[in-house]
Write a structure and sequence with these properties.
Length: about 70
């Protein structure tokens, strides 16, 4: 079974084209997006909002748990 639907593919494709043209902007700061990974993340989040079949975002481990030492 496919993890991602057509909508996700279309949104990521559009975001990648915009990044290449230099017109893709970050949502919060409004800066130009240069990173490929960031462009993919923007496309997937747009697909989620549009109701496409996209897995949930992975939760990052907090930095405090990694830096703690074992006793």
């Amino acid at each position: 079974m496919a993890r991602y639907g057509k909508k996700a593919s279309q949104k990521v494709k559009r975001a990648m084209h915009e990044r290449k043209r230099g017109t893709l902007r970050s949502g919060r700061s409004g800066r130009k997006v240069k990173s490929r990974k960031q462009a993919i993340a923007i496309g997937l989040s747009e697909a989620r909002r549009a109701g496409g079949k996209v897995p949930r975002r992975r939760r990052r481990k907090s930095s405090t748990t990694r830096s703690r030492k074992k006793k």
